[in-house]
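Thread amino acids onto this structure.
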């Protein structure tokens, strides 16, 4: 037996809670930006994924018009920092609705490092950073999807295994439903089956 939900009869927040409690785990784009006035910003966005490889494009969604979105629109640049398990408290704190003009780096006590290709700073304690230039935005209802072309990737050598980022070393966080967070847990290694190798049925 299932409980059925007619979304046309639900308030937006109820829909939000259902979606974020069923579309999971969600990777976190810990987005750093800088305003036109030079104030940097850092915020986690859990509506995030890779959009394209050629060209290399990632996307995150700003629910409402937040500082991340305004800064990206003003400067055309941002950084997606991997949100590691070791910084869960700091990641959560950067979701606080600080007043405009307050840098989350300073409020939370996070060290910055300069970007190689963009003006937005990187989180020094993050094991991986994707530096992006704005490709385009798409408005959808109360949200805006931000597409960024990845122009530079910086990865801490301690998480590389023969030049490949190792997930067990990066320990990425994920967002779940309510106030829940997910950590890496067990990693399963299962190779995709090619059709040429598909076992014949009896």
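Threaded sequence (202 positions):
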């Amino acid at each position: 037996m299932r409980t059925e939900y007619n979304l046309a009869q639900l308030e937006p927040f109820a829909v939000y809670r259902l979606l974020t409690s069923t579309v999971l785990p969600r990777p976190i784009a810990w987005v750093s930006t800088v305003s036109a006035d030079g104030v940097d910003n850092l915020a986690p966005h859990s509506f995030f994924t890779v959009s394209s490889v050629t060209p290399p494009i990632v996307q995150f969604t700003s629910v409402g018009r937040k500082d991340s979105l305004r800064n990206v629109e003003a400067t055309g640049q941002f950084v997606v920092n991997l949100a590691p398990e070791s910084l869960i408290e700091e990641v959560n704190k950067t979701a606080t609705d600080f007043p405009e003009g307050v840098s989350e780096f300073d409020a939370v006590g996070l060290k910055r490092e300069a970007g190689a290709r963009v003006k937005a700073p990187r989180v020094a304690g993050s094991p991986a950073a994707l530096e992006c230039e704005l490709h385009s935005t798409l408005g959808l209802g109360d949200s805006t999807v931000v597409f960024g072309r990845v122009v530079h990737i910086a990865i801490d050598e301690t998480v590389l295994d023969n030049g490949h980022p190792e997930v067990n070393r990066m320990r990425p966080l994920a967002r779940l439903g309510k106030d829940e967070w997910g950590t890496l847990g067990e990693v399963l290694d299962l190779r995709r089956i090619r059709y040429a190798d598909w076992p014949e049925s009896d």
